[in-house]
Structures are given as C-alpha cells and as structure tokens.
Amino acid sequence: MVFVRKSVWANGGDVDDPLLFWYAKGVGEMKARPLSSLAGWRFMGAVHGIDTGLWQQYGYFTPGEPVPVPADQTLYWNQCQHQSWYFLPWHRGYVWAIESMLRQAIVDAGGPDDWALPYWNYSDTSRPNARLLPPAFSRQTLPDGSANPLFVQQRYGQGTSPIVLPAGDVTLEALSVTFYTGTSRASSGFGGLKTGFSHGGGVSGRLESKPHNIVHVDIGGQNSAGPGLMSDPDTAGLDPIFWLHHANIDRLWAVWNAAGNSDPTDAAWLNGPMDRKFVMPDLAGNPWFYTPAEMVDTLVAPLGYTYDQFVQQKALASLQASGGTGGAESRTMTGPVEMMGANNGPVVLKGAVAAVTMVQMEGGPSPKLAQMREGTAPEAPRDHRMLLNLENIRSSRDGIVVDVYFNLPAGEKGAERVDLHAGSFGLFGARKASNPEGEQAGNGVTEILDVTDVMSSLENKGEMQGGEVEVHLVPRHPVPDEAPITVERISLYRQPS
Ligand SMILES: [Cu+2]
C-alpha cells in the first residue's frame, strides 16, 4: 500500500477535517506516553534535539521523572542533521518514523488505517490563506471541549495573531538551484555542503535556509522568556506543526527531483556518515538504521508514500515558470567561485537598531565589475549569480528574523523599498552552534543569500560606481541586550554559470 500525504488545506485545515481530527488524536495518544517510551511524543522530539533547561522552562520536562536508559538516549537522541547535505535524507527518515507511530496510535484509537501526515504548502500562491497557520493548530480546544493536542502556547511568531507567514519568506528560489551539493561557502547548493554527521552549525543549503529555517522562526519567534518551540532545534520537534512543515520540505525535495534534478551519487552521501549511523525506533521498539540511499525514493519500502499529485504538478508548473523569468541557477557550475570583496569586521545587532556595514569590491570599479555588467545587460542571458555570505552568525538565543537591504537611504523604511531587499534569514540553530563547548566549537551558522537581482538593479541605476555596497541588517524585532547577534564577516561572491 502506498500512503498519500495530502495538503493540510484540502478540507479547510481545521479539526472538523478527519485528517486533522485524527492527527490531533494521534498526537494526544503519543503525548500521554512517558518520556521513557520510545514511541512517545517527547522521546521523538528529543531524537531531533533536547535541552532539558528549555524543556523544563516550557513544561515538557520535570526533574526527577523517569528517563530512557542511557543506551537509548545515546543511540537515538540529538541526531538532527542541519547545515549538511544530510539535512534532507535524515529528516525524511525522521518524519516517516513518527508518521508510522502516529498511524499506529490512530488505528488503535479506531481511526483510518490509511492515514498519512498532511503537509503545509505555505507557498501556494493560488490559495489566499496558504500562509496562515492552519486553524487546527491555533484552537485551544476540540469541538468536544477537551484540550487540543495540536495547540502550543510557545508560538510567539513575528507579532501577528493569528500567525501568518510573510509572503517573502516562503518563495521557492531554492527550487531553481540545479545542483544538490554546494562546493564552497559561496554556493551552498539545493541540499547543502558535504559534511560528516552534522548536528547543526556551518552553512545551510538553499532549501534549508529558505523556506525551512525562516519558517521555523516565523512560527516560533521569540519573547522575553526565550525562543518559541519552533525557533530552536532542541525544542522544535515538540510542536505538532513541525511535522507538517517538514512534510512540506520533504515534498519540495521530491518536487525538485521530479523536475529532473539529481541527488548526490557520492558514496559518502549514499551510505551516510561513518561516525554515527542514522537510526529511529521502529514500531516494535527496535532500532531501524537507515542510509540516505534508502531515502531517495519515497515509493520504495520501507517508505512507501507519495504526495497528492495535483499539488505536485502545480508546484512543478510554477517551478518552470520561475525558471523562465531568469531566476534559474546554473545546471552545473562551470568555473570556480570567486570572492569579490568583504566588509572589514564583525557586525553586532542589538535592540531595534539596524546595523550598517560596507562591502568594498576589490579595486573599485574593476574588471570584475565590468564582467558583472556584461552579464546583467538587459537582454543578455545571465552568466553568473552574486551571493552574499553572512558568515559565522552567533547568538545565545534563536528566534529572530533579520532582513538584509543594500544601500537603504537614511530615514527610509525597508518595507517601502522592496527593490533594495537582498534577502532575509532566520536564527534557527544559532544558539546551539554558538556554544563554545558544543560540537561546532562555537562557530555559529552561515547564511547565503542570492543577491543577483538586487545587485543588477543597483548596477543599472549606476549606484555601484565605486565598487562598494552598503549592507543594512534590520532585525524584525528588537534583539535583546543579553542576547546580541554577531555576524563575523559579510562577503560577496560571484558564481559563474
Ligand atoms: Cu526543521
């Protein structure tokens, strides 16, 4: 049997849709299990990541309660792969494992045996409400008056109530990147850079960066108490919306493949990391080890699922449309990525104030710049992409979105100058990766923005004569004094195509 994952919006996205009603029931069953149960909600959340301090603060952990035996904690917990070419295959196995547990719980409670996780396609521009958090997740109670297991208190969002994802945060430029593996800090690829076992820290691949990271932060947000559940990898798996977000990211990988793009054939990717194997508890409570090679085809056992075709076709159509507007990245890279310039020191964000820094391209209006001009002449086909690297972003707290603008005039608001908007990034996993005692030795995360279009328009307006560009970092919400954001360096790369 092939299970079909359907859009959360197929029947309104509320708890009167059996798809969501039974999801709520399944989540409720799993939440009722103790932390020591391998098929429990909290155990599976901890498989992604666990920070007992944050869990306790939010009521998901009580000191002294029974915990799994140390061997199970070591085997299963704190596995999530981020800033890595394993991001997609690891999460595919993770989402499939909990979907199997949920289906079992749903069947045991008298629900349908063909139940499959819904996905949240927030990028569907043909549906006016697509970016709204589906109502089943914002109701505190079910129709019978009982508490709704899908409701989460700690979704602080970006200040809108109900939560609506900003349109610019869910666009799918990542789908037009045609190579899976990035090769350097400048070109992170559709699926990320080659790494070993990577429990966060480093460079996000393009799909991971957006919409993945930024949607996490748009939902989780941050307030004086700290990050919302979805903003931090150590709490994200506790929020039932996590699984619909990840089913959608998983669907986008399938859409990208269906458009003719290939996954890595490198044995190091196919076989998974040597230092630690990916593993989930199966329905009998035994370890199920898996490799990325076993994750490439969703129809092949043990996976055996697909996505409803109608929406997939539409996504493909819009992918082709976006390729037709000149937004496509190269099918293969034909030359080395070249650094054009960098700013001259760390940038610190604190409070509501924007930080401004200058990136000077080597030698001012140089041959490099002239080459850029050739490629951006109105009729000429693009021959390169320009990529802005925000290197080693560190903070002691996740949950802030930062908008990046070029040459924003004094006194003007970014929201009014979309023509100068270079991109945005969300702090998801920066906290973990900033801990000097952590696995990443405190190197933080790196975000890469494709700024080709905004640079072309500045070029055409003659605003780049000196070979310099002013980079404005504008936090959407005040950055707490006790948790400033530091960007170690901002650099600009040119990637030939
Ligand atoms: Cu995620």
Automatic annotation (TrEMBL):
The source's domain of life comes to Bacteria
Task: Please state the Enzyme Commission number of this protein.
Answer: 1.14.18.1
**Pfam families named among the record's database cross-references:** DUF7868 (PF25271), Tyrosinase (PF00264)
Q: Which residues form a coiled coil?
A: none
Which keywords does the record carry?
Copper, Metal-binding, Oxidoreductase
Among InterPro entries, the record links this protein to: Di-copper_centre_dom_sf, DUF7868, Tyrosinase/Hemocyanin, Tyrosinase_Cu-bd
Per the record's keyword annotation, is Metal-binding included, yes or no? yes
User: Where is each Tyrosinase copper-binding domain found?
Assistant: 82-99, 239-250
PROSITE patterns in alphabetical order = TYROSINASE_1 (PS00497), TYROSINASE_2 (PS00498)
Q: Does the keyword Metal-binding apply?
A: yes
User: Which SUPFAM superfamilies does this chain map to?
Assistant: Di-copper centre-containing domain
Q: Which GO terms describe its molecular function?
A: tyrosinase activity
Task: Please identify the protein, giving its name as recorded.
Answer: Tyrosinase
Task: Name its species.
Answer: Rhizobium halophytocola
